[in-house]
Amino acid sequence: MEWETVIGLEVHAQLKTRSKIFSGAPTAYGAAANTQANVVDAALPGVLPVLNGEAVRMAARLGLAIGATVHKRSVFARKNYFYPDLPKGYQISQYEHPIVERGQLTITTASGEKIIGITRAHLEEDAGKSLHEDMGGFTGIDLNRAGTPLLEIVSEPDMRSAAEAVAYLKTLHTLVRYLEICDGNMQEGSFRCDANVSVRPLGETRLGTRAELKNINSFRFVERAIEYEVRRQIALLSSGGQVRQETRLYDSVRDETRSMRSKEEANDYRYFPDPDLPTLLLTEAFLAEVKDAMPELPDAKRRRFGAQYGLSLYDAGVLTASRELAQYYEEAVMAAGGEPKLVANWVAGELAARLNEEGLDIVSAKVTAQALAGLVRRVADGTVSGKMAKDVFEAMWAGEGDADAIIAARGLRQISDDSAIEEVVKQVIAANPKQLAQYQAGEEKVFTFFVGQTMKASRGKANPAKVNEILKRLLTP
Amino acid sequence: MTLTITKIAEDLAAGRCSSREIVDDLLARIKAHSALNAFISMDEDAARQGAEDADRMRRAGGGVLAGVPIAHKDIFCTSGVKTTCGSRMLADFVPPYDATVVEKMRAAGCVMVGKTNMDEFAMGSSNETSFFGPVRNPWDPDRVPGGSSGGSAAAVAARLVPGATGTDTGGSIRQPAAFCGITGLKPSYGRVSRYGLVAFASSLDQAGPLAQSAADCAHLLSAMAGFDARDATSLDVPVPDYAASLGKDLKGLRIGIVKEHFAQGVEPAILEVLREALREYERQGAVLVDVSLPNSAHAVPCYYVLAPAEASSNLARYDGVRYGFRAAEYKDLEDMYKKTRSEGFGPEVKRRIMIGTYALSAGYYDAYYVKALKLRRLIADDFARAFERCDVLAGPASPSTAFALGAKNTDPVSMYLNDIFTIPVNLAGLPALSMPAGFVGGLPVGMQLIGRYLDEAHLLNVAHRFQEATDWHARVPAGI
Which among A386, A419, B402, B473 counts the fewest CB atoms within 10 Å? Predict the structure, then answer.
């Protein structure tokens, strides 16, 4: 039997506000335990939540960016359950009336573009963390994360493969960083994903029983967890078994999913509107303000790059993967006075490779956009060869100065003067009579030998195009 | 000694005595009347120090309340001073911060002499659910003072303090004020900040003053009220000078008589007292108008869905993890939760947590919680309609006078029905007060006056004019 995979994703994006969603405590990551939690976060008796307006602005930003309805009226609700890292015994979330509903995101995979529906996005607070290591057999509670604002973004079950799920996640990841509402750091848990996975016989329209996969904190693990889970469910159904509705934890070390709790064991969260927080009302003016402050979105930028700079949509996609990278590229093109394709090759090629090698982000690139443009100009005007330019780039990366200074200091200026190159070529030919004879006897591959010898004799500085042209002329009897 | 806040303020202003002298005197009185069990904790040194600070403050100008001693219900967090909420759960809890009410009253110069006894987590109408034992009614030590602000009411009635704070979720200021023969005001919801007030039912809780007179309550309310950025439900509207708005005559005042409040279920002698009180209003030029609050008949069941539902969630934080009581021995996390909460909460609190948890459960939410919310709206609409025909509503604060200790302990429903006239007001978010209107069998009778939303100034004036013409509020229990 042929099976179809159905996937819906729930993403928790940590919003980049300076303070928490319902308290004034700071949200910085990595501080000493419990130093970023105040009496509100610790849920002392009598304390009250006060909504952080910045979190609301960020949620509205996402809502407008995905073409969703941003509700002028939304309600905070309490999700009640007991856990040591949940100080109030309830999480403040949105339930029946979320701030954002009905949006969509366009993803691109090998099979083309596809629209994925987004059911809703709602604001909520994060819980603290339970610490089990180095606690001498006790469990420690760190409330630094408690109350950090989250935007939970829930997709429709519109994805049909792990690849589509990853594409959706990456598109959303790029978007939230463009919108500057989330830093997207998956290691630190700023962008977390749960996947609802089910399978059904191809052609069936009803959904199969789903499993919810938790704890998948990288794009690669999302793909692997889903693939594992799909195999597991198909094997189960093919052998006459049934999928249980349950929550499963992905174990990246063993690359498998394991049952965490079944539907029957699930909590009754007893949601009800939080009486400490008035209904959230947004004005037309507020929404207009959010709209006016909206940056160019990734998809629009990619299409513009394609049209404006004559790039393939693939290259445009690479260069617009982050707002900072796109900005770097555009600054470099501007500084180079054109040459968009050459700049694109350098940014997506040498620069990207170097950043990747050193695990650096574009904003910490050791060659600025202006400096790279200086190099590109020298390649474009023939001052250095493409090969030489790579050495110049390395030297620039190492901090030896700008392109012109390095070219001058190292004497890398390309020799493009015909008579000078002719002189060298003549010497090379004279020194290699045997190869000359071979070439003239029709062994054309000996030509590359002469190119090599000429470049060597000029210490790489001869303009390769000119070398070719002159060699051809002088080798021909 | 039966000094009122107004009189103390005059004496202090005239330099006839110092706050320190008054506080010393009151601390001695509190000791002498310790059998009332009105206080849970005292901080005598801090009180004396506070009085001296206030005396300096007054010499430097100071406000009307500078140097006036007060007590806070032990539901308000007080920085560095134990705040128990009448529960074993918080028996040793010392907050690191002040409630906004505490902060504001200190800023106004009030001197806190101690924290008053109360029903556990404000759940009760007799002060008998307190982990620290019941408070006795100064008018009859075998009777309850009412609850949950029983300690505050008894302390004011016994003249241990001239004023105290309380909180009122379903009648917890007005019913004890009625039982103890004093004046207690529950302001409009949102008028006074709830920050630092240990939550019982967030959508109903409201802090207010208890004192000997409406005039004294006016002074205290001016200090307590106002917007607080730390409470998203507090109202950002100006606070009038309540004391300055007293004194207007009542000619043409339309007093609504709620027909359902003058019906069966109320002791006939209480109704007779109230009718006599209303005649005083008529003498002052007020007119009586018959009104009806038909949906208020459902207020008690509605309240006993909503308040426990909110409480079940509000009290989830008492889990033994971060502060407060934790069971001595347990096997694992779940066992720790169970034992901590079983041993830390008393029976009434547990009952309400269970009722509330049930009402919010999947499958029951619509039948109970959502239905109760709809009822709440209908009850509020009744009030809005009534206020189209009158300016203030008058009636009994409680269907009975103070009952005997232990009389209703075994029957929660009869205890709940004690709040039948006060609960609808909380559901509607309106301001209301109870003031002494006479006596039945030697026990005070409280008259409830209910006002329009945010109309505390008017309400206080209506009470004040009555108190200018009568002396029920000035009566002192025998032996006090």
Answer: A419
- State whether A381 and A434 are in the same domain: no
Q: What does the block give as tokens for B319?
A: 């889990």
**R_g of chain A computed on alpha carbons:** 30
Which amino acid type is present at position A296? Answer: E
Provide the ipTM: 0.96
Cβ contact (<8 Å) for B76 and A46? yes
Give the mutation candidate from A50, A56, A270, A279 for the B interface (greatest B CB count, under 10 A).
A270
Which residues of chain B lie closer than 8 angstroms to A82, CB-CB?
316, 319, 337
The answer to the question of residue A209 being in a domain is: no
Please say whether the beta carbons of A397 and A367 come within 8 A.
Answer: yes
Q: Note whether residue A390 is domain-resident.
A: yes
CB atoms within 10 A of CB B240: 17
B201/A45 Cβ within 8 A: no
What residues of chain B lie within 8 A of the CB of A275, using their CB? 201-203, 233, 310
Strands A100-109 and A112-125: antiparallel
CB burial readout B407-430, b (16+ within 10 A) else e: bbbeebeebbbbbbbbbbbbbbbb
End-to-end CA distance of chain A: 71
Range of the domain at A386: 296-410
Q: B231 and B193 in contact (C-beta within 8 Å)?
A: yes
Choose the final residue of a domain: A382, A410, A438.
Answer: A410
Query: What is the spatial distance between Cα A449 and Cα A459, in angstroms, rounded to a whole number?
Result: 15
The answer to whether the CB atoms of B316 and A89 lie below 8 A apart is: yes
Tell me which chain A residues have a C-beta less than 8 angstroms from the C-beta of B97.
Answer: 39, 44
List, as one string, the DSSP characters of B92-130.
Answer: T---SS--HHHHHHHHTT-EEEEEE--SGGG--SSSTT-
Q: Confirm or reject contact between B391 and chain A (CB < 8 A).
A: no
> Which residues of chain B neighbour A46 with C-beta distances below 8 Å?
76-77, 95, 99, 194-199
Going from the C-alpha of B7 to that of each of A124, B4, B16, B22, B108, the distances in angstroms are: 52, 5, 11, 12, 17
A42 and chain B in contact, CB less than 8 A: yes
Write out chain B's pLDDT in tens, 480 residues.
Answer: 568 999 999 999 999 999 999 999 999 999 999 999 999 999 899 999 999 999 999 988 888 999 999 999 999 999 999 999 999 999 999 999 999 999 999 999 999 999 999 999 999 999 999 999 999 999 999 999 999 999 999 999 999 999 999 999 999 999 999 999 999 999 999 999 999 999 999 999 999 999 999 999 999 999 999 999 999 999 999 999 999 999 999 999 999 999 999 987 899 999 999 999 999 999 999 999 999 999 999 999 999 999 999 999 999 999 999 999 999 999 999 999 999 999 999 999 999 999 999 999 999 999 999 999 999 999 999 999 999 999 999 999 999 999 999 998 888 888 888 899 999 999 999 999 999 999 999 999 999 999 999 999 999 999 999 999 999 999 999 988
Same domain membership, residue A387 and residue A314: yes
A186 phi and psi, to 5 degrees? -75, -30
Which chain B residue is nearest to residue A88, measuring alpha carbons? Answer: B317
User: Burial letters for B18-27: b for 16+ Cβ neighbours within 10 Å, e otherwise?
Assistant: bbbebbeebb
Examine the fold and report which residue of A360, A389, A410 is the final residue of a domain before the chain moves on.
A410
